[in-house]
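not sure who needs this but someone in the group chat was asking about lysozyme from Streptomyces fungicidicus so here u go. i didnt clean anything up, its just raw.
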Amino acid sequence: MPVHSSRLTRIRALGTAGAVLLAVLSLPPAAVAAESAPTTPPRGSAHMGMGVVGHDGQDGLPTARSTQTEGVDVSSHQGNVAWNTLWNSGVRWAYAKATEGTYYSNPYHSQQYDGSYDVGMIRGAYHFGTPDTASGAAQADYFVNRGGGWTADGRTLPGVLDIEWNPYGDACYGKSASGMVSWIRDFLDQYKARTGRNAVIYTATSWWKQCTGNYSGFAATTPLWIARYASTAGELPAGWSTYTMWQYTSTGPTVGDHDRFNGTLDRVRALALG
């Protein structure tokens, strides 16, 4: 009696599945683990908000506020930026990534930092901190020496320490809460010694709670740039009653992550002047 074609199909499918299973079982454990392990991005590729969507909420547009000023932050991921387009869309301030750790400088930094200035924006530079690779003071020096300085021209904002989830490994870079606070303090103190300005801290509340124990001691002197992709900035880290800047989306209508300065353009100028 002939075998029905549908039964033949099922038999062949089972045979194929079995062969695949046998092949997987024959692989060494290390090979199976490598197949399932997440891909670690290359060093230097980190940027503001890299871990925000996964850890601290999803994109959502805020309610329009006439007392806030639109800004943007960019890194090498954006390449050469069309600054005139951003200016025409209403963006009036910008931050460009300058450095990461003591091993990476953004190759597009000059175009981004100088280009935003040339179209009339108030601009600054940021550093992606990696507390597991070098001291806070060493990273502050590296930052200042490679585009993270400050001048009292009314158009240059103080530098930013971007301190958030580690895209390359342990979320807190292998540090205890007290160790993380000490590392951040070293960075801030050295930046102040080099430039005369207090750096801005960019972070997300959930990371700050996890990795600093929700330390409140920087709030008196350090402006806060909060990252939260939602319709409101939400809860702030301990000590800060308000934010200076808010990164509210990574999927804005134009290039880069989009931000709001908590004040009018005159207040952006005031921060630049110090």
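also The chain has a mean pLDDT of 85. if thats useful
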